[in-house]
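Q: Give me the 3D complex with 2-acetamido-2-deoxy-beta-D-glucopyranose.
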Amino acid sequence: MALNNKNVIILLFVSVLFVPRIPSLHAVANYAKVDEVVQKRAQDALAAAQKAYNPNPEEVTDDFNKQVAEILKGDHQNTTRRQMKEGECLATNPIDSCWRCDPKWATNRKRLADCARGFGHGTTGGQAGEIYIVTDPSDNSPTDPKPGTLRHAVIQEAPLWIIFKNSMVITLQHELMIASNKTIDGRGVEVRIAYGAGLTIQFVQNVIIHGIRIHDIKPASGGMIRDSLAHLGLRTVSDGDAISLFGASNVWIDHVSMAKCSDGLVDAIMGTTALTISNCKFNRHNDVMLLGASDGFGEDSIMQVTVAFNRFGRGCVQRMPRCRYGFVHIVNNDYSQWEKYAIGGSAHPTIISQGNRFKASDDLALKQVTHRDYAAESEWKNWQWRSEGDLFLNGAFFQESGAPLKQSPLTNLNTIQYKPGTFVGSLTRDAGALSCKVNQPC
Ligand SMILES: *[C@@H]1O[C@H](CO)[C@@H](O)[C@H](O)[C@H]1NC(C)=O
Ligand SMILES: *[C@@H]1O[C@H](CO)[C@@H](O)[C@H](O)[C@H]1NC(C)=O
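A: Here is the predicted complex, encoded as structure tokens.
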């Protein structure tokens, strides 16, 4: 997210959010010109975000923790990894165990949509629609995409469950503008979105991105891009994010491998909410995950995000995530040797860190997990950033602040007697895109 060119946009969007009037917009949200369609979409997006917002976020975090505990009560009392037989299913977290043990996953693909957990739990993507099979990796026309291409699939009005005929590398010439009610499902083949533009989820609802690899994304030129069957928009240059979310709600990003993009890997901004990012693998990247782009945009307090079972691997520098205003549940992720900090923020976000494994590098200056910007201690000491059940290795430490958790979500789980952070190796062992074989558990 390049902040500099967003100031205008932010000002304009502020007047859209929470204020039911239509401002005269000249440039908003990377549209060079805002027409009635985009204005209407922005207002619908706001209404959807307000509906998706949960006034009691602790309910969601408690429920999530309960489900993790249920799974752990089963086979996996220990971090020791059992020997696995060919074709055996070893789903180790509640999202995966919801679908991965079904050997018929390829004919029951849409069951995946029942498996979202955390704040994005209401996301069904294209479950209500037909299957669309992408057969053509090309991306030659942003205004009139060829049937069979990914771009043609994502602009359709109807819900669609989008899959791929075979393995392919898709180099997008322009950002991919994804419409509401879509699932992109790369299971069974190897799909890479690489060497071109990334994915944009803007002012839309209900999108699942699953089982693909996104890397080496670069800024791409703007111009006229079709963002739905009925609408073309004039876009400015895109930033080079792997996945950019802007005023979106109910989005679930699961088992996606992301690396080496020129801007962020996941940037969720401008009132995006009801988002779950799970089972993803992040590598070799500077600004990994941004949740809120501006301290001046208080409307991001609607933002509610679950970050679970991800692996932040080698070469990740900072922002895992970096948060503003919202409520972020960071649970059972694996952090390995961040190069600046792991979890950061400004503008008093609420950050609940539970059962993560934080392994610091050997550098004595890089032991702290947390990082606060633009605030003196007298101010940030009131921000609620709490750590519970986290495992700290090699001197890592989490600087807590703010009120203790109201009801400790782990309290009712004490009977299970496990140390959550120690399970992270098992919970995240298959993070990133999976290699699923037809007629076998995945
Ligand atoms: C877990 O592993 C340790 C050592 O690896 C072992 O002593 C312990 O009994 C195991 N616990 C369970 C519940 O299997
Ligand atoms: C998405 O699907 C839901 C349910 O079918 C429908 O109510 C909604 O209007 C759709 N959204 C858009 C933007 O088409």
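A quick observation: The CA atoms of residues 1 and 119 lie 23 Å apart.
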